[in-house]
Amino acid sequence: MMPATTTTTMLLTISLLVSLATISQAEGSSALVCVCRCCSPWDCKPMKGTYQISSCAECTTDQWKKSFPDELDQCVVSEGTFLKAECYNRNAFFPKLTCFVLIGLVSGLIVLGIAKTHIPALAAYTAKYFNY
What we know:
Elements: H1 4-21, E1 32-40, E2 43-53, H2 61-67, E3 82-89, H3 93-115, H4 123-129
Antiparallel strand pairs: 1-2, 1-3
Helix pairs in contact: 1-3
C-alpha cells in the first residue's frame, strides 16, 4: 500500500501530463511565429515584437519593419550588423517531445524520491545514503 503523498503525487503528475498532451491551439490561430534578430558577427539578440504568420515565406525583415517601426532603433545596421528574420513552428514535434520528456523525468524522480523508503529493492541504498 502506497502512502497518500505518493498517490497524490502520481495523480497530479498524470493529470499534468494528460492536460499538456491535450492542449490544442485556438481556432484560427497560427502555430508559426516570426521573430526578428539583430545580428553581429559574434552575437544575435532577439528584437522586441513577434507576430503570427500563416507561412514561413511571410517572415521577412521588411514585414517586421512595417509591423514594428518604433523598434527599429534597437538595431543600428552597420558593417557586419544585420537584421535576420526567423520563423518558428510552436507545434513542432521535437520541442514538445523535449518538454514532455523533461516533465516526465522530473515527475518520476519526485515519485521515486518520495517512494524510496517503501521499495524493498532500494532498502540498502536508502539506509546507506538517506539515514536521517
